Amino acid sequence: MGYKLYSKVHGTSSPFTLNYDGSKRADLLSFTFIGIQEGKNLDVVVTAINQVGESAQSPSLLLVPAASPESPKNLRIVS
């Protein structure tokens, strides 16, 4: 019992790639994507798994990576 997490680059016709196989870890309820590039949005889907097999994919969600903060400007040091 558990779930699988898949993703693909948003706006492409490429197939979804398996990112996490939680078929034996139904208790893990979060996943962190590592190495996502700014401006490269992902479509993410989830499937459920039980003793019968794997479900159909959920509707896709759009994952938008957070932008890096800008560097400080007009910085002054006051003593």
Task: Please outline the helices and strands.
Elements: E1 2-9, E2 17-22, E3 42-50, E4 53-54, E5 61-63
Antiparallel strand pairs: 1-2, 1-3, 3-4, 3-5
Q: Flag low-confidence runs.
A: none
Rg over CA atoms, rounded to whole Å, is 18 Å
Name the helix and strand elements from N-terminus to C-terminus, one letter apiece.
EEEEE
Main sheet makeup: 5 strands, antiparallel
Structural class call reads mainly beta
How would you explain this protein's 3D organization?
A hairpin with a 7-residue loop joins strand 1 and strand 2. The chain is built from no helices and 5 strands. Strands 1, 2, 3, 4 and 5 form a 5-stranded antiparallel sheet that branches. By secondary structure, it is an all-beta fold.
Would you summarize the structure shown here?
The protein has strands at 2-9, 17-22, 42-50, 53-54, 61-63.
Please name the defining characteristics of this protein.
0% helix, single chain, mainly beta, 79 residues, 5-stranded antiparallel beta sheet
